[in-house]
Amino acid sequence: MMLGVWSLLLLWSLATPCQGLLETVGTLARIDKDELGKAIQNSLVGGPILQNVLGTVTAVNQGLLGSGGLLGGGGLLSYGGVFGVVEELSGLKIEELTLPKVTLKLLPGFGVQLNLHTKVGLHGSGVASRSPLGGLLQLAAEVNVSSRVALGVSSRGTPILILKRCSTLLGHISLLSGLALSLGGGHTLTLLTLPRLLPAPLFGVVEQTLFKVLPGLLCPVVDSVLGVANELLGAVLSLVPLGTLGSVEFTLATLPLISNQYIELDINPIVKSVAGDIIDFPKPPKPIKVPPKEDHTSQVIVPLYLFNTVFGLLQTNGALDIDITPELVPSNVPLTTKDLAALVPEALGKLPPDQQLLLSLRVKEAPTVMLQNKKAIVSIPANIHVLSYRPAGTPEALFELNGVMTLNAQLAPSATKLHLSLSLERLSVKLASSFAHAFDASRLEEWLNDVVRVAYVPKLNVDLDGGIPLPKVLNVNFANAVLDIIEVSFPCRCGLDGP
Asked: Where do the Lipid-binding serum glycoprotein N-terminal domain residues begin and end (predicted)?
């Protein structure tokens, strides 16, 4: 499930550069401040990151306390820990820590103002001879933890939040004092009185103690919260497999930028072959105008060159080549010299009309992806050698065609990838050479379109089934993201909103 509203933008073509363009990147991720806050809050509720640090607790405050967490033996709040000081003074023990509420404020050029609002519940069980309580005390204190956090880059090149300052503000304190009576059989009857009956000196002792202790108690919790955020931000940079073709490695190109509303990550996608070689497809030589971000949404912008690079890798690996024989096409699609003679008899020469045909399709240049009439179009140049053959014999070349396949690309995001599904719009061909007589190759186009549609396009879709990897921004599920193709056209509209 998505944490919030995400927009997946495909930035396809170049704009004429003009003064004031700042974004010149490949993949751009803009994380809305509300989205980051929700991600941290959701991880506190039940995420494995904080559970490993704080353990689990009873029903109401699940995920924060427990025998393996803050209250456990040797834990931050256990006997001998921070609140050992409180126990010595007043017989108090931590009973519960309410799930913190997270709020964020972005500080442009610096980092984040991170606030946690929580409630600390304590109770005293000391007896009159050992404690100034003389009975039972229950206390609940509201606490605001305020911290300033800088945004930087870790040693492994990931964005990281670093705690610079942490302070606590003690809010409303609720106190109830009373008497605990033993009834035998392990049962206890507790008689509570009103707060005003608590002696004022004891109230002052408790208040002063909390002022001293709470910063040491809750600022480490802030470190744990930052650990959550850093895990989520660090997940952006990863090595993602491209099926059997290779992989895409996401790295941080520049320092993260912070505005009032979002954190911007300039992510550089590097496509590698199976052998680990970098596929260096040309990147845009000029700045790209990135469209403005809408309120309360986060964006991931995918550049055109990433798509071109993936198709270039397919071409380099020979995955775009195919030999089409009658076994690969249904019976209603003709693939014999008899059927060819009905279209271009001069191309057969003296060959008998009962031989099978072999179409050897080779892609020697990288395909190109483009935007045309608001549609994603893939253009694949191909050489098509037409041969006659017998299964036990040697193929005999008839003629060669130069062709261009134009395919429509349907785009659909899944949880972590952008998937492409191709359909043939048309195949146009010209005669390159013939071993018999020259002829008008356009007479073959309808027939070739049928063959390519049933035999070649399904193979392409299988090769593309793995999809284009998307960066792991806050581990968000992109399946329900709003997908938009941004057409950046000429000339540049300087001073105007939008692309």
From this structure: 30-295
- CATH code of domain 33-234: 3.15.10.10
pLDDT in tens, 131-151: 444 455 677 778 888 999 998
Give the residue among 491, 455, 477 at the shortest CA–CA distance from 359: 455
- Closest-CA residue to 413 (of 369, 470, 344, 355): 470
The structural domains of the chain, with segments of one domain joined by +, span 33-234, 239-486
Cα–Cα dist 162/294, whole Å = 28
Using the CB atoms, write b or e for 380-391: b if 16+ within 10 Å: bebbbbbbbeee
Q: Which CATH number fits domain 239-486: 3.15.20.10, 3.40.1180.10, 3.30.420.240, 3.40.50.300?
A: 3.15.20.10
Q: Where are the beta strands (DSSP E) in 205-280?
A: 239-241, 246-252, 257-258, 262-273
What is the tens place of the pLDDT at every residue in 157-168?
888 899 999 988
**Rounded Cα distance, 201 and 434, in Å:** 107
Q: How many CB atoms lie within 10 A of CB 359?
A: 21
